[in-house]
């Protein structure tokens, strides 16, 4: 059974940093994209950052220059370094994996709270 387990969320003051990590266990055939989404209360889930298996990364505009996504294909992990956090970044962050045949997998979510 495939599991995506996130870690690293928490409470931080504005301007601070957090690093989220996601470990994938179980068998997934041909992982393509890995990434992070987030969902704030009362809002729709939104893409934060994604990275291809070749290392090409894309970010939503509001996090460019502050967040960095990375992945380790050997360990099957994806991380999100978040710097200069803002209260607007407060949300539940979800790890995401897209594999062959358009299979998608999600983590259970980790809470990130940024105080002003």
Write a brief caption for the model.
With 116 residues, the protein is mainly beta. The chain has no helices and eleven strands.
SSE topology sketch:
Elements: E1 3-7, E2 10-13, E3 18-25, E4 31-39, E5 46-51, E6 57-59, E7 67-72, E8 77-82, E9 91-99, E10 104-106, E11 110-115
Parallel strand pairs: 2-11
Antiparallel strand pairs: 1-3, 3-8, 4-5, 4-9, 5-6, 7-8, 9-10, 9-11
Envelope shape:
globular
As a percent range, the share of helical residues equals under 10%
Tell me the total number of β-strands.
11
Major sheet, described briefly?
7 strands, mixed
Question: What would you call the structural class?
Answer: mainly beta
Average pLDDT value? 96
Multimerization state? single chain
Q: Please give the alpha-carbon distance between the first and last residues.
A: 40 Å
**Regions with pLDDT < 50 over 5+ consecutive residues?**
none
Strand content: over 45%
Order of helices and strands: EEEEEEEEEEE
Secondary structure tally, helices? 0
Radius of gyration: 14 Å
Could you explain how this protein is built, in words?
This protein has 116 residues and is mostly beta strands. The protein is built from no helices and 11 strands. It has strands at 3-7, 10-13, 18-25, 31-39, 46-51, 57-59, 67-72, 77-82, 91-99, 104-106, 110-115. The strands form 2 sheets. Strands 2, 4, 5, 6, 9, 10 and 11 form a 7-stranded mixed beta sheet that branches. It starts with a strand and ends with a strand. The model has no long low-confidence stretch (mean pLDDT 96).
Name a few traits of the molecule.
116 residues, mainly beta, seven-stranded mixed sheet, four-stranded antiparallel sheet, 11 strands, 0% helix
